[in-house]
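tool_log.txt
---
The assistant was asked to compare two proteins side by side. It first ran the structure predictor on the initial sequence, then on the second. Raw inputs and outputs are pasted verbatim so the downstream comparison step can read them without reformatting.
(1)
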Amino acid sequence: MAPIRGPSSLSLSFPSLLACVANSSSATPGGSGDAMGVSHQPPPQSQQQVRFRLRRISGDGACMFRAIAQGAQMATHGKAMSLESEEVAALNLRQAVVRELRRRREEIEPFLPGIAADFDEYCRTMSNPMAWGGEPEMVMAVHVVQRPITVYHVEDGQLAPIVTYGDQLLGSAQPISLLWSGAHYDLLVPELAAGTAGGAAAA
């Protein structure tokens, strides 16, 4: 990747930050997703190019929760939280996600083979501030923040979407975009919002 400047709000200009994504205004609620609103295939029609700025997220075991909380903040208010506020928001999001897991146990168990016997222990583990979040938590986070979440990775030098959670919300709420690098999540800020949100370092 190109050289990076700044401690928390970063801008990269290389091609991998230019992505071709579906136009949310034409998305059909629940269109290509499964029963949990997860879509692994972005719709081929009505695609547009979107440029992102990369905002680094601390790698403390809570990067997924931090990135989602910060993304929701920036999408809603147009500016970033301080690192201290981000940490608190991430913990609050984690707790809300665990509550959703417990509330939607019957809904989610079929998608997690073998978890039924240890579900309570799983929820206790996930309550640990340092526990890594996974796909079940991503799905529950959509219910909490009421925004779709799209995960990208870099493929052949280009930014490519892997999966969208909560695709039934496309068209009604701005998605939160995350960059997955194999063992860590960072936040992708849409270029239009970057002028006000992306440039706001921890305050």
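(2)
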Amino acid sequence: MCQVDEEYNGQLEHRVTPRVSKKCVKCKENTAVLIIRAGDAFCRGCFKEYFIHKFRAMLGKNRVIFPGEKVILAVSGGPASSSMLSQVREGLSRDAPKKLRFVPGIIYIDEGGASGQSMEERERAVAQLESVFRATNYHYHIVHLEQVLSLPSSVLEAGSSATEKPQTGSSYKAAVDQFIQTKKNQHPDLSLENAQSHLSSLSMHEVENGVTSPITPEHTQALQKLFASVRTLTAKEDLLHTLRQHLILHTARTQGYTKVMMGDSCSRLAIKLLSNISLGRGASLATDTGFSDPRYGDVVIVRPMRDYSSKEIAYYNRMFDIPSVFIPGLDTKAQDKASIQHLTESFVTKLQTDFPSTVSTIYRIGTSEHHTCGTGTGWQQQLPELHQQHIIPPSVL
């Protein structure tokens, strides 16, 4: 080992620890308080502006959500979904320069019955989340996972998309003009600014918020029996994802929501992409990781947080006191090799520590797959790039 140091001492690369002792790259005046990537140092104010702008730009670039639409936010209590809820509140506030114009709602799926939590622990977690939801004045739904046992099997089938609007620039502009004109006709005394901000008050429904229906010990036992019949943690996580999707889609349809916002971050989607490849689901990468998932017809799933890394979200939540609630899941305290999903997460996270471009490379390949999914060759063309980035070993190729 000493011989290696003597022969290659001049060639060995030493990692330079970044220091937050320089000016902000945006305003060039204030001292930077954090570094997102190499060379991207932001002060507090510029980082908040950058974070908010990225969320608005993602929605504005895709133009999937039309004015006046009912959009339900799937909030799990974690950092990403809590940050997404904060961005929606920011966009619907009166002080926002470019207000969001949809009607928001919130859904939380209580999965404690599947992870073995006691009823007291579940009630404590629900109470913490309800305090956050009430502060938004949005209509919210607390749905227990046990309720999925009484749903029809046709929930995941594509519904009628007759009411779906064409996603073009001209039709979007026409929808905006029609929305503002409708508000003027309904409230002639409102100005243009008040007509736009009036939308935020529409989310305060007369319907009572809270749990949709009570659960019984028999329901919980049936759910636990279902998960006990599944042998591997990989299959259990797949089952949990399917049941969760059932409940979200069913609630969206019964309550009149046409869009579902998911809090999947760039880091989470990179892990999901590699997990799906390992599970043999490469054909559905575009819809599983893209901005919009229109597979269910009348309800479209959107992912406005897909450009944020978990590091950016953690910094933002810490700096601006965004509340989040930790709720243990199926893989909490599990070993790295307990499931394919958990192993992939550990692999990507550790690789990201040594190679900071890991997540962005996987994410970029997933984006290119979204554009080339019609030919079915996008992923195969990107395999050599993954090998060059040391993400896929040569044996896979």
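---
observation on (2): The chain has two domains: 1-42, 44-331. Residues 156 and 246 are 6 Å apart (CA to CA).
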